[in-house]
Specification:
179 residues
Length: 179
């Protein structure tokens, strides 16, 4: 995600960016070059060019902040309800094992709130609200360490057969071994 602090710019940062755009509007009126403005304000030349085009089309008011691009589909109250669902466990929702996946959370959102999200949309929703991927803290109780080490010693080497037999000769497939 672009903004790791929770889904977007903070209010202070939004005001700062808007102030930069409005400063460029004053400089556009003075016919300053885009490169000079970009260097002085420490922004990219391409951003200044985009802002100049917007300023030409709509004046300084067009450079003011328009707010967020879209509102979140789940309101904060609904997200709070969604946060309580994993605590009930996957079995309460009809899954036999104890794993929560993005696809399952997507299904819960669909069943509970009648909204459709993509898998990536669910991931972004969770990250935006401070959730992260988790790895189990302990191993499964069913795990048999002796069976795992036995498999690693005996079965795995047979399963991972080398692609070419180890024989002296030319590394080329088309040219036979030269004298």
């Amino acid at each position: 995600m672009r903004y790791p602090q929770g889904g977007g710019l903070t209010a202070e940062r939004q005001q700062f960016r808007e102030g930069l755009r409005l400063q460029t509007a004053e400089r556009f009126a003075l016919s300053e070059a885009s490169a000079a403005i970009a260097k002085n304000l420490r922004v990219s030349v391409r951003s200044v060019q985009r802002w100049r085009q917007t300023w030409k089309e709509g004046g300084p008011r067009a450079l003011e902040s328009q707010g967020p691009a879209s509102l979140p589909r789940l309101c904060q109250k609904q997200f709070t309800q969604l946060e309580a669902e994993p605590a009930k466990g996957p079995a309460a929702h009809g899954w036999e094992d104890q794993r929560w996946t993005l696809a399952r959370i997507k299904t819960v959102i669909g069943r509970r709130f009648h909204l459709t999200y993509t898998i990536q949309g669910v991931r972004k929703l969770l990250v935006r609200n401070g959730w992260s991927c988790q790895v189990p803290a302990r191993r499964a109780t069913e795990r048999n360490d002796e069976a795992v080490t036995g498999w690693a010693r005996e079965v795995r080497p047979c399963a991972e057969d080398s692609r070419r037999p180890v024989e002296p000769g030319s590394p080329s497939r088309t040219k036979p071994d030269s004298p």
